[in-house]
Design goal:
This protein is an alpha/beta fold. The protein is built from 14 helices and 17 strands. The structure holds adenosine-5'-diphosphate. Adenosine-5'-diphosphate binds next to helix 12 and helix 14.
Length: 497
């Protein structure tokens, strides 16, 4: 069987007395009673030992030749307030006894004392000392725990305060328990304090959600959310979610509300829906035109002659061709948006691409009597890009320079190096455009509408695709145009040496 050896803790006593006999006699008695005893033969030594060591008990003689017992008591008590001290004297007056207890002595022991009297005093004193030590330990423990809690609380506060989303917690009666600065910002609240009833000052939609949870009898793990436009025109949109907070006993403790900024998402949704309605609108016009032609042909009562029918069919085909181009452009935009377009990145020589594009347009250039001049710098560094995309870009720009040019106009093409960019300039002597039109040039479906452009076919998507391609290679595109005189597109692609 294992024996539990409990080390006996001996009370530590200091005896301060100039009378040698009493000192040694008391020491012997106490030692035989299981005390651990030190002695001091005068006040100086008593102070030294009594302040240096943490004695449980201390018996101090009142009258000593060097330092008075009261002084010794004061000094020891100051350094060791938990040491139980006794003043022992044969000459005690009522006043000194009172003074000694005022200064912290446990009591006063009249000399001479019997062993029993002494032991009784010391036993009571030691019990008191143990109680003091225990309460001291408990106090320390509590302080540490409080510190820990305070630290945890401040850590939690720091975390909650630094959350970008707003967080707000109310208790069962709708009083504010916790909030972070973000929640104040969203709800435009300046001064709210913990404990405040806040349901009345929150947006109605939010307090309705909170009430919905607070009004349920029991705790139910069910959250509610709503989207709010806190500032008009999608300036500030939030999603507010309210969830019940359970109490450890399973009942409902309160409601936590999280406010999430969804402004960017809402703006994007809006742009997307605008785009969809724009697409629908653009598709509708040519479809309606084709439908009109078909109905005319089908309507026998109209008696449309065969050559007229043929004309309608050919006009329909043109509109359908335009539709196919538009759909292809839209598909390209969507592939670029979701970055699904497969790219084959390789080194491309821009002058070569420009030349092959001009060759491709040769017939139409001739038809319109347009002269093309080129000024392409030799040894131009290649750019790294997808061949199809770069070709698509220059085809768009060059065919515009042709489409929107005047009869017998010119197109000047130059390519050169500038800083870290390969720059291409395509200048035409065409119809040009007004500054207000130039600003909208890269928007989807934008087309300048005037007498000169009326009969030029197009989707209004070409330049928006060009811009997307240029930007996807960290390039830049600029336009210089003078109404009635001509337009210059400047495209810059960064290259790596
Ligand atoms: P599309 O040519 O199919 O209409 P784009 O996106 O290529 O579409 O061009 C948008 C509009 O910008 C054109 O409709 C035209 O009004 C104007 N534009 C483009 N390039 C030129 C140019 N070189 N000169 C004058 N106007 C131009």
């Amino acid at each position: 069987m294992e024996e539990i050896i409990q080390e006996e803790i001996k009370p530590k006593v200091l005896i301060v007395d100039d009378e040698r006999g009493l000192r040694t006699g008391t020491k012997r008695i106490l030692q035989s009673e299981g005390y651990n005893v030190d002695t001091a033969e005068n006040g100086t030594e008593g102070i030294e030992l009594g302040t240096k060591n943490d004695y449980d008990l201390c018996i101090i003689d009142l009258k000593m030749p060097d330092i008075d017992g009261i002084e010794v008591l004061k000094t020891i008590k100051k350094a060791r307030p938990n040491t139980i001290c006794y003043i022992a004297t044969a000459f005690a007056t009522f006043d000194t006894a009172i003074e000694a207890t005022k200064l912290g002595a446990q009591s006063y022991i009249p000399k001479p004392f019997t062993t029993d009297e002494l032991l009784k005093h010391l036993e009571t004193g030691y019990e008191k000392r143990l109680l003091i030590l225990e309460s001291e330990r408990l106090r320390k423990e509590r302080e540490e725990r409080l510190l820990e809690i305070a630290y945890e609380k401040s850590r939690l506060n720091t975390i909650v305060n630094s959350i970008f989303d707003g967080v707000m917690v109310v208790n069962k009666t709708g009083e504010l328990v916790l909030f972070n600065p973000a929640s104040l910002k969203y709800f435009d609240l300046n001064e709210i304090i913990i404990g405040e009833k806040i349901l009345g000052i929150l947006p109605k939609e939010v307090s309705d959600l909170i009430n919905k949870i607070l009004n349920t009898e029991k705790y139910e793990n069910k959250s509610y959310s709503t989207q709010l436009e806190l500032k008009q025109n999608r300036e500030l949109c939030v999603e507010v979610s309210c969830s019940p907070v359970p109490h450890p006993d399973g009942s409902l403790a309160g409601v936590v509300t999280v406010i999430n900024n969804i402004t960017e998402m809402k703006k994007l949704e809006y742009v997307k829906s605008q785009f969809v309605s724009m697409v629908a609108h653009e598709l509708k016009a040519p479809m309606a035109a084709v439908m009109g032609f078909m109905n005319l042909i089908l309507d026998d009562s109209m008696g449309i002659k065969p050559d007229k029918q043929k004309e309608y069919i050919s006009r329909s085909t043109k509109r359908l061709q335009g539709l196919i181009e538009m759909v292809n452009d839209l598909l390209d935009i969507s592939r670029m948006e979701i970055k699904k377009k497969e790219r084959e990145i390789k080194e491309l020589n821009i002058p070569e691409i420009l030349k092959s594009n001009v060759d491709f347009l040769e017939l139409e250039l001739k038809k319109k009597g347009i002269t093309v001049t080129t000024n392409l710098e030799l040894d131009l560094p290649p750019i790294k890009a997808d061949n199809n995309e770069i070709n698509r870009l220059y085809t768009n720009i060059l065919s515009n320079a042709l489409k929107y040019n005047k009869e017998k106009g010119t197109i000047d093409i130059s390519a050169y190096k500038s800083g870290n960019y390969v720059v291409t300039k395509i200048a035409d002597t065409g119809i040009g455009m007004k500054p207000e039109d130039r600003e909208k040039l890269f928007q989807e479906f934008f087309r300048v509408k005037n007498d000169q452009t009326r009969n030029i076919p197009g989707t209004g998507l070409g330049l928006s695709i060009v811009k997307r391609i240029v930007e996807s290679y960290s390039g830049k595109i600029e336009v210089d145009s003078e109404y009635g005189k001509g337009t210059t597109f400047i495209i810059k692609f960064p290259y790596k040496v």
